[in-house]
Amino acid sequence: MIIPFQFVMVLLLFISNAGKVSAQNYKELLALEGVWKFSIGDSENWSKPNYNDLSWEGISVPSSWESQGYHGYDGFAWYRKHFDGLNLKRAENYLLMMGYIDDADEIYINGHLIGFSGSFPPHSKTAFHALRVYRIPEEFINFEGNNVIAVRVYDRLLDGGIIRGKIGIYTNPNMVEFSIKLEGIWSFKKGDNHEYKNYIYDDHDWDNVMVPLLWEFQIGRHYDGYGWYRKKFYLPKGLKDKELILVLGKIDDFDQTYVNGNFIGSTNDFRSFGKSTSYSKLRAYAIKTEFLKEEEWNVIAVRVKDIGHNGGIYEGPVGIFTREDYNKFWRNNY
Predict the structure, then answer these.
(1) Per-residue pLDDT tens for 134-162?
(2) What is the pLDDT of residue 209?
(3) Is the N or the C terminus of the chain less surrounded, counting Cβ atoms within 10 Å?
(4) CA distances in angstroms from 131 to 105, 221, 231, listed in the order given
(5) Could you report the per-residue pLDDT of 159-195, keeping only the tens digit for each?
(6) CA–CA separation, 56 vs 54, rounded Å?
(7) If DSSP codes are grouped into helix, strand and coil, which group holds residue 25?
(8) 92 near 143, Cβ under 8 Å?
(9) CB 252, CB 314: distance < 8 Å
(10) Prediction pTM value
């Protein structure tokens, strides 16, 4: 399947209902445009919430750093911004909108990586044309006081930095509400090994990828074949007794999906490239109660086969519903 490039980048907005994106869905909770702390260079300490950034320069966001005294600078730089969690309500869903960043970025909330676009050297890849909208997990927010957003940026040529767009924390009143949210960062590895499905498997050296988003824009273009995704999730008390549905959005092309090493579902019409329509099917698989570990960490493993052109978990929503909520979601969207 061939998907137009412009549509592919819109898929970065994985937080919308059934992959549909509309600016009207967003409600601003906290404006973040204006002066941010800024430093050229690169240090992992700059992502930490307790790092002292008082000596850093001030820079306007959004605007290229070249237009603010850093003309001709290509390389790494960091932005930091403090905000008061008392200005946010706990009942909301939280989306950090960072506009357009040239070329690649990583975004941290209180030291926690919540998302990235493009890639850094030695295999740098630009994402200057991608609108950045990242979900902020509620557990990463300090609702009682100071919070820090840290943005690591790499620019390889021409303009660099947080260059344009709306900057702030938003909510989406129409956002799909899962019992367990799974959008965001997953572990990924090219190739095929059935041991990857196992609950006990060391995936610490796997690549980080954003889900949902085609793997061509994360691991390199023109990769066809097998790839595996893995994601840990915590199952709170009380959910195990409910019938749970894992929704993985849409996958190009075929998948086999496991929870804690147990097979729960697959989509494969066994057709060849150009004839298969599996990529267009919503993945929704029931999870047997006996497969789950209550008040413990659980592991989802997804084996994906791409038979041509684009591949991977490319469109949301992605998460775990109760059966009741899944039925509501289906009625409202299909």
Answers:
(1) 999 899 999 999 999 999 999 999 999 99
(2) 93
(3) C
(4) 12, 20, 24
(5) 999 999 999 999 988 777 899 999 999 999 999 999 9
(6) 6
(7) helix
(8) no
(9) yes
(10) 0.80
